[in-house]
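Can't paste images in this forum, so I'm doing it all in text. The chain is below; anyone willing to post the predicted C-alpha cells underneath?
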Amino acid sequence: MKTLLLSLALLMTIENCSAQYCGGWRWKVKVLADEAAKAINFNEAQEITFEQLYKLDKIELNLGDWTLKRRKEELHFVKITGKILRWKVESNDHDYHIVVSDGKHFIVCEIPSPACDGVISTGHAAEYRAARDIINALPTEMKSGWHEVIQDGKKYKLSGVLFHDFKHAGEYSMPNCLEIHPIIRIEPIIDENSK
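Text version of the structure:
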C-alpha cells in the first residue's frame, strides 16, 4: 500500500512538472497570458479578408523589445477563410506554424502548445488543443521540414487574434509580419453542393 501511494505521488509530481517553458519574443501576448488580453471579446470573431489584413499590416516593431505590450490592433478577434497549405512545429516554442492562403495572399497563423508554461492559466489551452487536433488530422506529406497539406479544395475558417511578429516565414509573411496568433478555432467549410 505504501509503495502504491508513493508511486501515485511520484506520478502526480511528474504530471505537474511536465510543462515546458516555451517562451520567446512577446510570449505573454502570443498566448493571451498578458493582462490586456482580458479586453478581447471572444464571443464573435469579426470576418476579415486577406486584402483587409494587408491594409492593416503597417506597423514595424522594435525587435529588441521582447516585452512590448499588446498593441490596439492586437485586441481584435478575427476570422479568415482560406486553404491551409502547409504547417510545421516551431523548434523554439513548439507553436504550430501554419501557412494559409486565399489563392492570392498568404498569412501565417500560429497555435501555441497547450503544454507550455502559462498557457493553461489563459483559459484557452483546450481550444489550442482542439485546433491542433484539426491540423494533425489533415492529410500531408513531408517536404523540407514542412507538412505539405494534400489539397482537396477544402477551405477553412480560422479564428484568432491579430499579432505583429518578426519575419520568420519568408515569402509567406505579410510585409510587416501581421499574423493571426493565436488561433483559437478552426472550422472546415461545408460544401453546400455536397448536401
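Residues 1-19 have pLDDT under 50 and may be disordered. Strands lie at 46-47, 77-89, 96-101, 106-111, 140-143, 146-149, 156-164, 178-188.
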